[in-house]
Structure prediction request, 68 residues.
Amino acid sequence: MKKIWVNKAASFSDAEQFDQSYYSEMLPSDKLDTMQWMREEYFRSRKMGISNESGKRLRRVFKIIKQT
Prediction:
């Protein structure tokens, strides 16, 4: 199970700066693991019948990239 944590920011610009620094410090393999987890959660929610308008658009941005 993926751990979930929260960062409390004083403003939107502080939150955006935190996000940018967090993701820029991640290893490429960690970024791929995160994307794979999001992909699995999306398909798991579709199997359980959870559907909404935003879910229809989410699938269009997923693309599997083979590593060499």
